[in-house]
């Protein structure tokens, strides 16, 4: 087994509860943005030629034009005490976080970015995630001055209790990206689903 595979296997154990659980929508008395739902394309676009892996360098800016996202600086996120992945605080609802126990965007493996759809304070950085379609680009500027460009290959909306931990965090043979937020109708102030964008490095 490769070193990368061993690292990924070791990381998956504490990620058994790694759904994005920190999203809370506006209180029932306040207007909340429309529930985020994504509609996967009936057929994904032809797979683009993969770009070669990049050396490690932390992300500093994330742009998702189709969702109106241009977020910097990028927060570093680890694991919470209960084993779930940390999420940005409500005070940082307009920022994207990067899961620091994984690879940096552009390295071989799945780099993971996390942001809120909304919080009790109102709409957040990924409020327009439902506008994203397969084939569109996500750009990550890195601390070393380089830029990693990813193309969205798949959109997935799944209940948090069925979160696909291995699919999201498991080892991959090429540089990939995940962007995770919350979705579904508000229930008791929380959204029951996760929305996940899967993207491949193309430049």
UniProtKB/TrEMBL annotation:
Residues 28-57 are annotated as: Disordered. The keyword rRNA-binding does not apply. Residues 1-28 form the signal peptide. Keywords: Hydrolase, Signal. The keyword Signal applies. This is Class F sortase. It comes from Streptomyces nojiriensis.
């Amino acid at each position: 087994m490769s070193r990368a595979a061993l690292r990924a296997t070791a990381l998956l154990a504490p990620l058994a509860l790694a759904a994005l659980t920190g999203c809370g929508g506006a209180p029932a008395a306040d207007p909340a943005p429309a529930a985020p739902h994504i509609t996967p394309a009936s057929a994904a676009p032809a797979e683009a030629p993969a770009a070669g892996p990049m050396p490690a360098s932390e992300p500093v800016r994330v742009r998702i034009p189709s969702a109106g996202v241009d977020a910097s600086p990028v927060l570093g996120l680890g694991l919470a005490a209960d084993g779930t992945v940390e999420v940005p605080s409500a005070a940082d609802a307009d920022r994207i976080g990067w899961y620091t126990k994984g690879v940096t965007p552009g390295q071989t493996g799945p780099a993971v970015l996390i942001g809120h759809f909304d919080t009790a304070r109102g709409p957040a950085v990924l409020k327009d995630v439902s506008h994203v379609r397969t084939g569109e680009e996500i750009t990550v500027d890195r601390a070393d001055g380089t830029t990693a460009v990813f193309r969205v290959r798949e959109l997935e909306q799944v209940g948090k209790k069925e979160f696909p931990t291995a699919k999201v965090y498991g080892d991959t043979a090429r540089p990939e990206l995940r962007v995770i937020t919350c979705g579904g109708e508000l229930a008791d102030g929380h959204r029951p689903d996760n929305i996940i964008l899967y993207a491949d490095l193309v430049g």
